[in-house]
Amino acid sequence: MFLSKIWFILIALASAVAISFALIAPRPFERRLGALEGQRLDRAQYAAEQMFKVDAHKWIDHVGKLGRDAIIAESLDAASRGSGEDRVIHRTIQDRFRTLIPDLTSGGIDSIVAVDTKGRVIARVGDNEKEYGDFIGGAEIIADALRGYLSDDVWGVNGRLQRLAAAPVLSKNRDRIVGGVYVSAETGPALVERLKKNLDVDIALLLRGKVIASSRAPGQLDALPELIAHHTKEIEAAKRTQPISMMVGKEELIVVAAPFPGQAGEQQAYYALVGQHPADSGFTALVQNATSDDLKWGQFHWLPLLGGVLGMIFIGLFLQRLEIDAPLARLRRELQKLSSGDAQKIQDNRYGGKVGGLARDINAAIERFTHAPTQRSDIAGKDLNAILGPSGGSTFDLPAADSAFAPPPPAFAPPPSPSFSPPPPSQSFAPPPLPSFAPPPAPSFSAPQPFNAAALGFGGGGGGGSSMAAAEPSNLPLPGATKPTAWGPPPSPSEYEDDTRQSPPQSDGDATRVVPYDPDEEEEAHFRHIFDDFIAKKRDCGESTVGLTRDKFLQKLRDNKASLVAKHNCRTVRFSVYVKDGKAALKATPVRE
Amino acid sequence: MMTLRNPLSRAPRLIIVTVVTCLSLISSAQATTVRGTVKMPDASRSTRLYHGYWRLDNGNVPVQTSGGAKAETIVVLENVKGSKAPSARTVTIELGSLDARPRLVVTGPGSVIELKNTGKVRHELSTPDKPAIMQLETLLPGATRRQRFESVGDYVIRDSEYPHIMISVIIVGTTFFSAVDDKGAFSIANVPDGTATLKVWARGKWVAEQQIDTSTLGKEELTIKVASQREQLKAEQEAKAAE
To answer: What is the SS3 assignment for A69?
Structure first.
């Protein structure tokens, strides 16, 4: 399931990345849209600036034409020289202005004023047109006109913004300046309306810290003067601001502000272009702003998405089948075979991962149930009975316990009765006596006493699978074993295996290796022999012998022997090796003399 | 035999000694006339403080370039040895015709500036840079506002309604100052020899300052170049970068 886990982790990571992209992706676009809106405002500000310039030039042209009018020139010349009556001159110029510009309002003009060379107002039309005689020559634009310049200016007077253009009035011969004319136009709601119409952005006009006209609802831009006040240095240097963000309630606006030229610039006179920040880019906004058109085939990449999803599902299912379903199905089949008796155990080495663990657990459980202590003792008893007869001496399995040869009490079978006569060993298993063996002490032989010996802890692979198992007839010469004719040739190991599988072990080839009970040296030789046989059997059975050392093995045999002798009051114990359930096993047979 | 001399015969000697002594004293305290030219940047040569989008010649009659804002330039020598502050006086400035006359006043500490509205419009006057001196007040037509300036310094009275009206009040501790003419030339006579600080005031602020040694000037004419606002900004930025 390793690959499945990796796949799920990859899917989770890919999902996290996809969700992150989904949530983050709108932000760059939002910034981009904000920047684009800022650029739009920049262009609008540039366009507004050009409009103001064009307007100013238009006014200058306009007022220049007025200054070239002969009647106005003659009247102002007379006024400058003091040669006429002021009231008459006033009326004459007024009439002339009205003749030249019949409708001031349509021309966007608030007033037209004519001054003599001293800056004295001779005539007005428009605002305060009945007043004249006051001096305004100190105003820079008027003074400039009287110096001979045509120029424009912006004033902020009495809370109003006024754009002005002035021109000198030359004498009839155009050789001297006889006065000046200026026109003024209020820069207020009318201008705001015109700019909004032309530039398609909201406009606000500010003067001395107040919004004096705006295309947005009153009060919405009250915070604008303070906002712009924080950017005065920027405005002073660049004559405009970068796009500034401004919150109005929950609405985010983008503002670009620029100063008016002229002396109004000194009076914090600005025009601000106001745009709207793009919609919120959060998840809810994303959902709200998505339309059905966005999900159409032509708009959305359905095929790659579906292909990707199906590919991921296919890979996931494939890995699941490879690592879970198939092994489980195989395990199930094996279990079915196991339950039907077609198999003795599960081939757990065919499985990997947790299924393999499950298989091994099942095997272990089978092993435990089939070799439970009580059953084992029964089996041992059966073996004993099969080999030695019901009352004969017995040999016992060495239980598969880590306690190596520690005989578990429940498994311990009662010692045989003295009258027990061992049955003759099976001829097929009766090994021929080895010539080198000492003659069996048959007359004095007391039948092996049945007992349950402890298992060797060193079973090699299989974790207890190498239990020393089933009883074995004594490797001492038994009465029946003295008949050489009854003995066949020693069976091959495979035959031993088969025999041990088919029936409880009655004898094996090792039984032929009778080690005479003799002094200690001979007993050590017996132990070494048993070790060699055990190793050989294990190898034959394909079991691992790693960790199985001679010294350790011999020591275990000695300990076990001592324990059994003490417990059963026998003279010694004989061990033999046989194969049970495809694994090497040991038998211990008590010997009484 | 003793010879008696007439006491009057000693008079010529005394006169000679006295003259020599006076001459030596005069030579030790010589005065110099500091002459020079203030070269204003192009933008400051305009007669206007504030410009609109356009300013065109009429094409027929030559334009007049004198007067206006550029006439408000003075040169002041400070830290002159032995100089005294001018006496306090009262200066009346008339506000009329949308203008102030005079626009520049140089006087001594304790002087009173009398602002008299002779026009038909109201003015809102204050010293924005030093609001403690003059707070914003409306000066109605015909009204007068007086303000005493006690200490040496520069004060700019602004009209918030008509920003082009800018009155510079320079309270100095020296009598060595001079206005510049249309060409920027100035001359300050009888300046004692020694070091002094030459400062140039134009359009409401000090635009140049330099140390001079009048004893080494002789007949040399100073040339004071006033940096433009852009140049000043650039210099400030370079100074900051150097720091």
So the answer is: coil
